[in-house]
Write a structure and sequence with these properties.
This protein has 5 helices and 2 strands, in the order H-H-H-E-E-H-H. The protein has 107 residues and is mainly α. It has one domain. It comes from Streptococcus ferus.
């Protein structure tokens, strides 16, 4: 038997997750956004990728400064060059994974 409390929690979590992701599409469909908002939203993908890269090349511990992960930091360079040249994100991801694998194999 399904506990009504758990079912309510699941439905509430679904709505809380679904509404912020889907609701903006309905708003934009019926109204246009100002140019400043569109320009701001254009920077979001770059900002998200930058945050992911930074979080993957640094380790953080409470009470100490962030430490650089050298292997991952070195692997960022060829990955960045591949994405600049090819504009292919999947090829860049494969390049990054292979670079980290090769560096870990030899270092």
């Amino acid at each position: 038997m399904i506990n009504p409390y758990i079912l309510t929690a699941i439905v509430a979590a679904m709505l809380v997750t679904w509404i912020p992701r889907v609701f903006p599409y309905f708003l934009v469909r019926f109204a246009s956004l100002p140019n400043k908002v569109v320009a701001f939203l254009g920077y979001l993908p770059l900002t998200i990728i930058f945050a992911l890269v930074l979080s993957s090349i640094f380790t953080e511990k409470t009470g100490s400064l962030p430490q650089l992960k050298w292997i991952e930091a070195v692997a960022v360079l060829p990955t960045f060059l591949v994405v600049l040249r090819s504009k292919n994100v999947m090829l860049a991801v494969v390049t990054g994974v292979l670079c980290v694998a090769v560096l870990r194999l030899f270092i």
